[in-house]
Design brief:
By secondary structure, the protein is α/β, with parallel strands linked by helices. It is built from 16 helices and 19 strands. The protein starts with a strand and ends with a helix.
Length: 484
Amino acid sequence: MFTWKKEIDVYRETATLVVGIQEQNVPSPFLPIVDKLKEKKDQLFDFATVTEWLPIDGFQCRAVLFVGLGNKEKYTIKDLQTICSKIYKGLKDDSVILVDTFYPLSQDTAWLVEKMTETIGLVRYTFRGYKTKKTEDLEKTLGTVTFVAPEDVSAAIESGVILAEATNHTRDLVNEPRNKMTPLTLADYARDLALQLGLEFKIFDKKEIEALGMGAFLAVNQGSSIEPRLIHLKYRNRPSDPQVTALIGKGVTYDTGGYSLKPRTSMAGMKTDMAGAAAVLGAIEAIAKKKLPVNVDVVIAATENLISSEAIVPDDVVVSMSGKTIEILNTDAEGRLTLVDAITYAKKNGATRLIDVATLTGGVITALGLDITGGFTNNQDFYKAFEEAAKQSGEDIWQLPVDPFREACRKSDVADYNNSPGREGHASFGAAMLAEFAEDTPWIHLDIAGTSGKRSDYLLGPAGATGVMVRTLVKLFELESQLF
């Protein structure tokens, strides 16, 4: 779909030409055309304005898309994403992007091409779903996109494709309905992915999870007739480095809230409560395909949170894998129960750093809205590195406090902890519980409850799952690899 050429003859090219323009900077072959268009369209050079010109005067292309770049002093990755989103909507059949005409956005040709490839791949995503009447096949409609650049950008194209595909595979997992994406289905997907990528893996069934002593995780599963699965994938590409980063994803494939039942209006959409698990699977896919020189584990405790005569109820006490006990005050605070056992497991299996990704609380939406991921940590140096990766990936993150909320998690007359100290600040309460089990191991918690999905079409694609944090996780390891 994406290719590279060093140069072309713009007059003889038959595909659609995509050209970036500024009022003071119009490529010479197109000056006469732009001068004529200016007389009819005042907004021609405005930022992200796309003007289609049908060829005359010796041009053989199907059309030219003139893309206004505005005149900003500094452009951001979101500016580039906005430009690419507009370009995609104008593309038909084969197209050629003249990369040097977009240099006002960035002088780094490879970066520019990677992000263009990535963004177009994200914007064109569609979830095929289960409609019996199929929509038009977008893959065939778009055709080939050729980047014309003075240097070989094949590697940049490949990188952009990997990032887009991994994010889109994550979106697919999250968009699946509950009856098509059970803990068993998720485990099968992880196994197939590991086999495809050549990763070491282990999928634990219920008896094996019981043998591990994962009482908190198993407690959440008690109300479901579908067995849980513990998923562990291993990627090792730096044998000399003792550092192993565990990516831990919340894998609750459906959450009713249990006996602390969610209201009717909050129940629909709970198929997405495994978006954290999907994100870490997308991340390991991209990390492995890029062959990054790092050591990474993926750990997912996959279960449903349903209601039956066997389900946990408020006042129950469960024993976690670590041996610490937890009083259940709210069965809808179930994600932290699965995650504390996953964190303990990861540490016991050699993880020296932890990043968990979870649709953990509605409280993070109250605090930060729907466009910013909540970040929590026990290690500021680790968090700053992650924050830089998020910035370079164009994914917004904001740090929220942990330590002031720990003490309330420890208040229980019958156990070491309670799982729900209250609603005021409960995004931080959820994080604080996880921090208690991470202990001194460097740890980051990402609450993606607000950012994992969109209610309507947005800059990078259609309504539904976003695949948030996949690209940031990958970027973290890319940046660290550059230091080796």
